[in-house]
User: Which sequence fits this backbone?
C-alpha cells in the first residue's frame, strides 16, 4: 500500500533555528495565513530545481520579514519597500545567484512603488513574489494600497473611499504594461485549482531566472484572517467575494519563449587591462625645468578670464598640464558663484615647485584678460610687478595700472588672419605667455596637446599658434 | 604608473576601480555627477557594474545588496541626495554592510546651490539616520587624497564592516591636480568575506539583517556596534599638522578650507605671527587626542569652515587653549580667502 509521506521540502531548514520561539517546527504566521502556503510552494521549487545553494532571499518589512527563519539559503533583510533595489544590488554583484524578492502589498505597492517599478522596467533578472492580502497585517490591520473600496481597516474605519484614498492599485496590470518584464501573472490561494496554478506560476517565475532571461513577477491573492477579522475558512470565501472581482487572476504578460538568456560576463582583474582601461598607461617624457625670466614667474598664480566659449578653461588646463610635465605641482579650478554670472568664465591656475597650499587665486601674478569686464574686474588684484596680458581685439580700454608689466596684442585678429582659426586664440596667448615669461618648455605644451586636444587635425594649428605667440614677443 | 592631471571627482572613480570596486550605483546630482559619469565610462570597460538608479533611496539600497553580497561597492551624491540615503545608511550600519558613500558637498539647506559648503558635517559625523551609530568620515583636501582616501575608505569599510563617508566638497571635486595612482589591488588580495551572501554553498548561512526583536538582544547588538566604533576611535584617526610646534594661534579646518588655512599660515609666518594648522583628515573618529595636546600649548584657536560653525562646536567641546576658541565661517558657496582669514587672525592676535 502506498503511504503518503508528509515532510518539509528541502528548501526549508529542518529546524527553524533562527526563530526565537521555543517551537522550532512551525512558522510564526497566524492560523489560516496564506504566507505558509506560498512559502511551501517556493521551498518545493527550490528543492526541485536544486537551487538552494545559489539562492539569496530578500525579506521585506511586513509579516514575511522573517523569511530567514525558514528558507535554507542566503538572506538579506531589506528596508521597507526597498527589496527590489536590494535584490538588484545582489544580482548585479553576483549574477550567478538566484535572487528572490518576497514582498507584501504595503511594502511593494505603497512605500516601495518606485523600486518595484524600476526594477521591473530594467528587467532585472530577479523573481518577485508579491503577496497581496489587501491589508497591512504585521502592523495590525491598516489600509494597504490594495485595500478594496469600502473595506474597513484601522486607518479606513469608514471603509476605503475612492474619493479620499483612490482605488486599489493593480500591480500586475501596471507592471505588465512595461516592455522589459518577461512574465507577470496573478494567482490566488482560495481553492485547490487556483493553488495548483499558483504553484505552477511560482515554478515558472524561478525557471525564468534560472535561465537568466529577466524579470518575473507573481502576484498572489492570499488570506489574512487576522487582518480581515474572519475565520480561516471564511478567509477563502473573502478572497473569492472581495479580491477576485477586482483583481482578476491570469497571465498578464508572458514573453518567456521570445526572450534570450543573458550572458554573464566575468569581471576583468588583469593588471595591464585595468591600467589601460583607466587611461593610466600614458608614458610621460620629462622635460627640463625651465628658467623663468623673472622670479615672480617661478611659482606664479594665474587667473584667466573672459567670455564663455573663448577657450579660457582649456588655456588654464594646458598651462597646468604642461607645468606638471616639467616636474612642477599645479592646480586648476574653474570659477564659481557670482564670478560665473554674465557669461564670463574664469579659471585659476597655481604653479609651484613644492606643495601648493591654496588653489584659489585672489592676487594673481599673471592675469590674462580676454574681454573688457574681466580686465576691469581683476586688474586691481594683480600683484605688484605682475603681468597682465590683454587681447586688444575685445579689450579696448587698456590697463590703467602703471606698476605692472602689460602685453597687449589683438590676439583674436591675429588668430583669424594669420592662422585662419579664431579657435586657437587661447593657444596663441599661451605661446605669448611662455615667450614672455620663459615659464614652460614649449615641448611640454605640445605634449599636453596630446592629452587635451582630442581632434588630431587640430593639433598642428595649435602648435603653429604657440610658435606664433612666442614670435609676437620677440 | 603615470601621474595624471585630473579632477578630484574623476580620481575617485579610478581609485575605486584600482581598489577593486565592482559596482557603482548612483543618481546624478551636481556637483557630484562627474563621479557617476566617470563610473559610467570606466566600470563597464572592465565588466564591472555601473547602474544609474531611479533615486538615491534606491542607490543606497543597491549598495546594501551589493555590499551584503560581498563586493566592494560605492555611490556618490551631494547634500539633497545624501539626505535621501539616510535610511539605507542606517540599515547598512545596523546590518554591518561595507560600502563607500561620497558626498561632494554643496550649499544648503534645501535645494541651496551647487557651490561648495561644509555644512553636512553634523549629518556625517553624528550619524545622520535613526539609531545609535557613527560613520567613518574621511575628508580629503586634494585630488590626490580623493584617490588615496577612496581606497582607504573601501579598506576601512571592509575592515570594520561599516559604511564609510568620503566627505568632499564642490571645490575639491572640481579641482584638477596631478595624481599618482597606485597599482590595482589584485583579485587574490581582495578581502575575503565569508559572512556575505555570495550565493554559494559555503555562504548559505550568511544573513544580512538588523532586526533584533528582543530588547536585550538589540541592546547587545548595539553594544557590539559601539565597541567596534570604539576600536575605530582608538586606531583610525588621521590628521595633518603644519608649523604647530611653536604656534601661538592654531588654525583648524578641513577640506578646501584647510588649503586656504595653509596659505594663511605661510603668510602669517612671514609677517611674524606664529600660526600653525591642524587639519583633521578623519572627521569621525575625530583626532581629538592630538588636538587637545596642541590646544594646551597654544594661546588661541581659530576654527574656519564653510558652515554655521559645526566643526567649531566639536572643537570647543574637546579642546581647551589658554585664551579663546574662535570661529570664522562663510556660507552659501563662498570659499573664504586667505586675506579675510588673515585679518581675523590679526584681530585675535591684537595686531592690526
Ligand atoms: S497578520 Fe495576516 S498576513 Fe500576517 S501572519 Fe497573520 S494572517 Fe498572515
Assistant:
Amino acid at each position: 500500500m502506498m503511504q503518503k509521506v508528509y515532510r518539509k521540502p528541502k528548501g526549508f531548514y529542518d529546524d527553524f533555528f533562527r526563530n526565537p520561539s521555543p517551537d522550532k517546527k512551525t512558522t510564526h504566521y497566524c492560523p489560516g495565513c496564506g504566507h505558509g502556503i506560498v512559502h511551501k510552494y517556493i521551498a518545493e521549487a527550490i528543492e526541485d530545481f536544486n537551487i538552494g545553494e545559489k539562492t539569496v532571499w530578500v525579506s521585506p518589512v511586513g509579516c514575511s520579514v522573517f523569511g530567514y527563519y525558514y528558507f535554507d539559503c542566503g538572506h538579506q533583510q531589506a528596508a521597507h519597500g526597498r527589496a527590489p533595489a536590494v535584490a538588484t544590488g545582489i544580482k548585479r554583484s553576483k549574477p550567478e545567484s538566484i535572487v528572490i524578492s518576497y514582498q507584501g502589498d504595503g511594502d511593494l505597492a505603497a512605500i516601495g512603488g518606485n523600486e518595484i517599478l524600476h526594477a521591473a522596467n530594467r528587467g532585472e533578472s530577479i523573481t518577485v513574489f508579491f503577496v497581496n492580502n489587501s491589508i497591512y497585517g504585521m502592523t495590525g490591520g491598516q489600509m494597504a494600497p490594495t485595500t478594496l473600496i469600502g473595506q474597513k481597516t484601522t486607518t479606513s474605519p469608514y471603509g476605503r473611499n475612492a474619493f479620499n484614498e483612490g482605488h486599489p492599485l493593480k500591480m500586475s496590470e501596471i507592471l505588465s504594461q512595461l516592455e522589459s518584464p518577461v512574465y507577470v501573472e496573478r494567482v490566488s490561494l482560495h481553492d485547490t485549482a487556483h493553488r495548483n496554478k499558483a504553484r505552477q506560476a511560482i515554478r515558472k517565475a524561478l525557471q525564468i531566472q534560472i535561465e537568466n532571461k529577466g524579470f518575473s513577477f507573481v502576484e498572489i491573492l492570499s488570506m489574512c484572517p487576522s487582518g480581515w477579522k474572519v475565520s480561516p475558512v471564511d478567509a477563502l470565501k473573502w478572497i473569492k467575494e472581495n479580491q477576485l472581482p477586482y483583481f482578476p487572476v491570469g497571465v498578464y504578460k508572458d514573453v518567456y519563449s521570445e526572450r534570450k538568456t543573458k550572458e554573464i560576463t566575468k569581471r576583468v582583474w588583469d593588471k595591464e587591462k585595468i591600467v589601460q582601461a583607466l587611461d593610466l598607461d600614458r608614458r610621460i617624457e620629462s622635460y627640463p625645468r625651465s628658467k623663468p625670466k623673472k622670479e615672480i614667474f617661478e611659482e606664479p598664480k594665474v587667473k584667466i578670464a573672459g567670455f564663455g566659449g573663448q577657450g579660457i578653461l582649456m588655456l588654464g588646463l594646458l598651462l597646468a598640464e604642461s607645468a606638471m610635465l616639467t616636474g612642477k605641482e599645479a592646480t586648476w579650478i574653474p570659477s564659481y558663484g557670482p564670478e560665473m554670472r554674465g557669461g564670463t568664465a574664469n579659471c585659476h591656475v597655481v604653479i609651484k615647485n613644492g606643495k601648493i597650499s591654496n588653489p584659489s587665486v585672489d592676487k594673481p601674478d599673471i592675469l590674462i584678460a580676454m574681454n573688457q569686464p574681466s580686465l576691469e574686474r581683476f586688474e586691481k588684484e594683480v600683484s605688484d610687478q605682475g603681468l597682465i596680458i590683454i587681447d586688444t581685439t575685445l579689450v579696448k580700454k587698456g590697463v590703467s595700472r602703471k606698476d605692472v608689466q602689460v602685453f597687449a596684442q589683438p590676439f583674436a585678429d591675429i588668430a583669424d588672419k594669420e592662422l585662419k582659426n579664431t579657435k586657437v586664440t587661447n593657444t596663441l596667448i599661451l605661446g605669448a605667455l611662455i615667450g614672455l615669461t620663459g615659464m614652460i618648455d614649449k615641448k611640454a605644451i605640445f605634449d599636453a596637446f596630446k592629452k587635451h586636444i582630442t581632434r588630431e587635425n587640430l593639433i598642428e594649428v595649435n602648435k603653429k599658434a604657440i610658435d606664433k605667440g612666442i614670435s609676437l614677443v620677440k | 604608473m603615470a601621474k595624471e592631471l585630473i579632477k578630484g571627482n574623476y580620481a575617485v572613480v579610478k581609485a575605486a576601480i584600482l581598489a577593486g570596486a565592482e559596482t557603482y550605483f548612483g543618481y546624478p546630482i551636481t556637483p557630484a555627477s562627474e563621479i557617476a559619469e566617470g563610473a559610467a565610462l570606466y566600470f563597464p570597460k572592465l565588466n564591472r557594474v555601473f547602474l544609474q538608479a531611479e533615486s538615491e533611496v534606491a542607490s543606497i539600497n543597491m549598495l546594501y545588496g551589493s555590499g551584503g553580497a560581498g563586493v566592494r561597492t560605492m555611490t556618490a551624491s551631494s547634500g539633497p541626495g545624501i539626505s535621501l540615503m539616510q535610511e539605507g545608511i542606517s540599515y547598512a550600519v545596523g546590518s554591518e554592510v561595507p560600502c563607500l558613500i561620497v558626498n561632494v558637498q554643496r550649499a544648503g539647506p534645501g535645494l541651496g546651490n551647487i557651490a561648495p559648503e561644509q555644512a553636512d558635517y553634523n549629518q556625517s559625523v553624528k550619524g545622520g539616520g535613526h539609531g545609535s551609530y557613527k560613520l567613518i568620515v574621511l575628508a580629503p583636501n586634494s585630488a590626490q587624497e580623493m584617490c588615496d582616501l577612496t581606497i582607504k575608505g573601501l579598506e576601512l569599510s571592509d575592515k570594520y564592516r561599516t559604511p564609510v563617508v568620503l566627505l568632499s566638497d564642490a571645490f575639491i571635486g572640481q579641482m584638477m591636480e596631478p595624481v599618482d595612482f597606485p597599482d590595482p589591488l589584485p583579485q587574490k588580495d581582495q578581502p575575503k568575506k565569508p559572512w556575505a551572501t555570495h550565493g554559494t554553498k559555503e555562504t548559505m548561512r550568511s544573513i544580512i539583517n538588523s532586526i533584533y526583536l528582543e530588547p536585550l538582544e538589540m541592546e547587545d547588538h548595539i553594544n557590539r556596534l559601539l565597541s567596534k566604533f570604539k576600536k575605530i576611535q582608538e586606531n583610525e584617526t588621521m590628521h595633518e599638522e603644519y608649523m604647530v610646534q611653536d604656534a601661538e594661534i592654531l588654525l583648524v579646518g578641513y577640506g578646501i578650507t584647510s588649503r586656504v588655512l595653509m596659505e594663511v599660515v605661510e603668510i602669517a609666518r612671514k609677517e611674524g605671527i606664529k600660526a600653525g594648522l591642524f587639519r583633521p583628515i578623519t572627521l569621525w573618529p575625530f583626532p581629538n587626542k592630538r588636538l587637545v595636546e596642541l590646544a594646551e600649548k597654544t594661546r588661541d584657536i581659530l576654527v574656519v569652515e564653510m558652515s554655521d560653525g559645526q566643526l567649531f562646536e566639536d572643537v570647543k567641546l574637546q579642546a581647551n587653549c589658554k585664551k579663546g576658541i574662535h570661529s570664522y565661517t562663510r556660507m552659501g558657496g563662498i570659499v573664504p580667502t586667505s586675506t579675510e582669514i588673515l585679518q581675523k587672525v590679526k584681530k585675535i592676535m591684537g595686531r592690526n
